[in-house]
UniProtKB/TrEMBL annotation:
Cross-referenced InterPro entries: Ribosomal_bL28/bL31-like_sf (IPR034704), Ribosomal_bL31 (IPR002150), Ribosomal_bL31_A (IPR027491), Ribosomal_bL31_sf (IPR042105)
The name this protein goes by in its record: Large ribosomal subunit protein bL31
Biological source species: Aquella oligotrophica
Keyword Nucleotidyltransferase: no
Gene Ontology terms describing biological process: translation
Binding site for Zn(2+): C16, C18, C38, C41
Taxonomy, superkingdom: Bacteria
Function: Binds the 23S rRNA.
Gene: rpmE
Family label: Belongs to the bacterial ribosomal protein bL31 family. Type A subfamily.
GO CC field: ribonucleoprotein complex; ribosome
Record keywords: Metal-binding, Ribonucleoprotein, Ribosomal protein, RNA-binding, rRNA-binding, Zinc
Record's cofactor remark: Binds 1 zinc ion per subunit.
Subunit structure as annotated in this protein's UniProt entry: Part of the 50S ribosomal subunit.
Length: 75
C-alpha cells in the first residue's frame, strides 16, 4: 500500500444544533464540524418527535393547508 496517496485521517470535534458534542475521525481539513441532527436529538434514536423548523416553513404549511384538513375532517 502506498503511503503518500491516502488523505490525512484525524480527530474532528462535531457539534450538533441541540448542543451535543462528540469526537470522531474524518478526512476533513477542518478541526470542527457543525451538524443539524445527531443521535441525541434524532427521533429514531431518541424516541421524541421534534420538528426542525427553519424560516417558519411548518407554520406556513399549516396556515396554507390547515383550513383544508378541517373541512375534510368535518365531512
Amino acid at each position: 500500500m502506498k503511503q503518500t496517496i491516502h488523505p490525512n485521517y484525524k480527530e474532528v470535534s462535531v457539534t450538533c444544533s441541540c448542543g451535543n458534542t462528540f469526537v470522531t475521525k474524518s478526512t476533513l481539513a477542518k478541526e470542527a464540524l457543525h451538524i443539524e441532527v445527531c443521535s441525541a436529538c434524532h427521533p429514531f434514536y431518541s424516541g421524541k418527535q421534534r420538528l426542525v423548523d427553519s424560516a417558519g416553513r411548518v407554520d406556513k404549511f399549516r396556515q396554507k393547508y390547515g383550513a383544508f384538513s378541517k373541512r375534510t375532517a368535518a365531512k
